[in-house]
Write a structure and sequence with these properties.
binds zinc ion; globular; 4% strand; 31 helices; two-stranded antiparallel ribbon; single chain
Length: 688
């Protein structure tokens, strides 16, 4: 069931909406005196604003900012009643933050260009320059310099419930004011932020150096399944190898072995000595470990004996360390008192209950068993648990990749050639000639060292950057396909900066929205090359692929979320207790949604994702991203014939960073919904 916020009882939302942070005890009496003085000066009409503003400022005021007398003096001087002075101050702050953010971003971009761009050899100083962040202490400085308190005293700090309940009726100025204050919803001390960074980099390090040498992973009956030298990073490479094995002779035994490896990792029954070590053979079924024969060893010295001791719950110790570091920040964001609240209400701006309802709508959709049947028919066997990663819905390629490579390399020998072609590229994507030239003049193309990416600008006058990797013989098709994706980001970034009415509303509600627009562009890359677009059959297969991928990752996201709730309920848990709880949660979710489809119960592999360790509560962005992309694609595919795609993309993106549901209603007429993704899959199933 879907629970649109608009349909929730108004009383429930109003109750949640009236949360203004309360002043700390030492400032309660001074705050009351402040309000009385402000009402005496500006009249009773300003009472509600004064009460709210003074309480907001007091909630973040620390002894180092001044004593109670200084607080009272500050409020008396800086509080502004509605009118010209308030309007002018709002405009000043908007311009100031555009300058601060825009130039800060530019400095960072300039300092990292030698590390990121293909502009000659990397010098030892380049990574240091790239790591320097001129904006790292801006929020601290804005509090210390009292600019943050001017914002908190005069503009409302809103909760998500309040934005959802009232945001539809707000003026654009009210939306911009909400964003202005929201910037200061947290004042986290440097040492707490440092603790979060430390826990996060320890988790990253653990995750980024967790490899399994597959030549040494044996089948149930002790056979070698994988070639020498294959080293897979958990979980990404393990999962991708399962996907790749669908097309390989004898792939099933290898897929089963990988699934067993995953199970050993999440249950932490994996012998610690087999991680990153090609000198020992391991049978993941029996958990038997022994020295590998010398001629099988990729690197290192053969061993006399091998240690079978299990990994000591390090995976869960890292998660707990992140939890404790994030929890330490709770007291410093009074309106968002948990990491879960900050993730959903501040970053994602979709309430947790709504995200869960969307994910469960996908998990329980009637299209899922139909897709499972189709997969079973294609595989000619019963499904197994790892088939949640089935990757066989790949359309037959209508243009061989070598032919496409030839085409793009000839057309785009350099980054400059791609830049010069931009106006024409944009016209083929559905922009008018004038709009295409206007956009191209605000997008710079750079040759990247690494993979392609898009970099926004944050002030008018600066340009978005499209970074693309070009080989010595020109841009290959893969690079071109990515460049068209990045161009989608750049177009969104340019409209939502230059076209938005308040720069405080620059951007999109969250990253899923800019990704959705990038995918809309990317899906039209053949048209840019002047080739026929993908056939209806190809599109049908892709929608089955999308729904199955969303089904898989939706459950993974629920495990992540369940784990965080459990930690908040058991803040003193040991790593072993967290392990047991996580396995319990993963198996429950599996039994509820996956066992009926895949036939096997009590499977814990949904807990394998590395994000759960190194990027907590991020995973829900993937399934939500699929929903948003399908919804936008459905809308844009159904445009009337006389409406250019470009005009519609412009209309949609200049809305800026309001809440996801409001943005989506403006774009498509409906709040964020799972229906378009399910409809597309249903149509595809009906075709076959
Ligand atoms: Zn992207």
């Amino acid at each position: 069931m879907l629970l649109p916020a608009a349909l929730l009882p108004a009383a429930l939302l109003a109750a949640a909406a009236s949360i203004a942070p309360s002043p700390p005890p030492a400032l309660r009496a001074p705050a009351a005196r402040c309000v009385a003085a402000l009402v005496a000066k500006h009249g009773d009409g300003e009472r509600a604003r004064a009460e709210r503003g003074v309480a907001q400022a007091a909630a973040f005021w620390r002894p180092a900012d001044g004593d109670a007398r200084a607080f009272e003096a500050f409020c008396a001087e800086q509080f502004l009643p509605r009118g010209d002075a308030l309007d002018a101050t709002f405009a000043r702050l908007e311009a100031a933050f555009e300058a601060l953010d825009g130039h800060g971003l530019e400095i960072g971009r300039e300092l990292s260009r030698w590390a990121q761009l293909d502009v000659g050899p990397v010098r030892a100083v380049d990574p240091l320059l790239a790591a320097y962040d001129p904006t790292a202490h801006v929020t601290d400085d804005l509090f210390a310099g009292k600019i943050a308190f001017v914002a908190l005293l005069n503009f409302p700090l809103t909760t998500l419930d309040e934005r959802l309940a009232k945001g539809d009726a707000w003026s654009r100025r009210e939306w911009a004011e909400a964003r202005l204050a929201q910037r200061f919803a947290r004042r986290v001390p440097a040492e707490v932020n440092q603790g979060i960074a430390t826990a996060s980099s320890a988790a990253d390090l653990y995750i980024s150096d967790y490899n399994v040498f597959m030549h040494h992973v044996l089948s149930e009956d002790g056979q070698r399944l994988f070639p020498k030298g294959k080293r897979l990073l958990s979980h990404w490479n393990l999962r991708d190898e399962i996907k790749a094995q669908y097309a390989q002779e004898g792939g099933l035994a290898r897929q089963r072995a990988i699934a067993k490896v995953m199970e050993r990792i999440v249950t932490q029954t994996i012998p610690a000595g087999v991680v990153n070590d090609p000198t020992v053979d391991w049978n993941p079924y029996t958990n038997d470990v022994r020295p590998a024969p010398q001629d099988t060893i990729e690197a290192g010295v053969p061993r006399a004996r091998a240690d079978a001791a299990r990994e000591p719950d390090t995976r869960y110790a890292r998660v707990l360390a992140s939890f404790r570091a994030e929890k330490a920040a709770d007291p410093y964001s009074p309106s968002l008192p948990t990491f879960i609240a900050r993730k959903f209400e501040l970053e994602r701006e979709l309430p947790e209950r709504r995200v869960v309802a969307l994910l469960e709508e996908v998990l329980g959709a009637p299209e899922i068993p139909r897709i499972a049947k189709a997969i079973e028919a294609r595989l000619g066997r019963r499904l197994e648990p790892f088939d949640i990663w089935y990757a066989g819905f790949k359309p037959r390629t209508e243009h061989p990749e070598a032919e496409l490579d030839r085409l793009t390399k000839a057309r785009y020998p350099t980054a400059e050639a791609f830049a010069k072609a931009l106006p024409g590229t944009l016209e083929r994507l559905g922009f008018s000639p004038e709009k295409a030239r206007w956009l191209a003049a605000r997008i710079d193309v750079d040759p990247a060292r690494g993979s392609g990416h898009a970099l926004e600008a944050a002030r008018r006058g600066d340009h978005a950057h499209l970074r693309t990797r070009i080989g010595p013989d020109g841009m290959d098709y893969k690079g071109f396909n990515i460049a068209v994706h990045e161009l989608g980001h750049n177009v969104e970034q340019t409209f939502s900066l230059y076209g938005v009415d308040h720069t405080l509303l620059r951007g999109v509600p969250n990253t899923a929205f800019t990704e959705a627009i990038a995918f809309v562009f990317q899906a039209r890359d053949l048209e840019v090359l002047g080739l026929a677009p993908a056939s209806a059959d190809a599109k049908a297969l892709l929608s089955l692929n999308d729904l199955w991928a969303t089904f898989e990752i939706a459950g993974v996201a629920l495990v992540d979320l369940g784990m965080w709730h459990w930690m908040y309920d058991h803040p003193r848990a040991t790593p072993a207790e967290l392990r047991e709880a996580t396995l319990h949660i993963a198996r429950d979710i599996w039994n509820r949604w996956y066992a009926p489809i895949l036939g096997v119960r009590d499977v814990p592999i949904l807990a394998i994702y590395s994000h759960m360790v190194s990027n907590p509560l991020y995973l829900a962005d993937y399934p939500i991203g699929h929903l948003i992309a399908a919804q936008l694609e459905e809308h844009l595919a159904a445009l009337p014939r006389d409406r250019r795609l470009g005009e519609e993309v412009e209309r949609i993106t200049i809305e800026g960073a309001v809440t996801p549901d409001l943005w989506m209603r403006n774009a498509t007429g409906e709040p964020v919904s799972a229906k378009p993704l399910l409809r597309a899959a249903s149509r595809a199933l009906d075709r076959s």
